Predict the 3D structure of the following.
Amino acid sequence: MKLIEDWRAVLAKAWSLKFNAAAGLLGAAEVYIALVQPAGIPNGVFAGIAALVSTLAFGARLLAQNGNDK
């Protein structure tokens, strides 16, 4: 396995990586919610949102992403 040449640019701009990071944070939030069990937040809400964001990450990975964010 070898890093691509412009990995820093990809890390900064790739939406698939941003969606995957968001999904990871939402998964961690689900675990936290399950531990503290606050009133008003049903089980599985953050897990469902994380699943949706993961699906967006999959789609973003397949799309061409250029650096022109103007």
Remarks:
- Helices lie at 7-13, 15-36, 45-62.
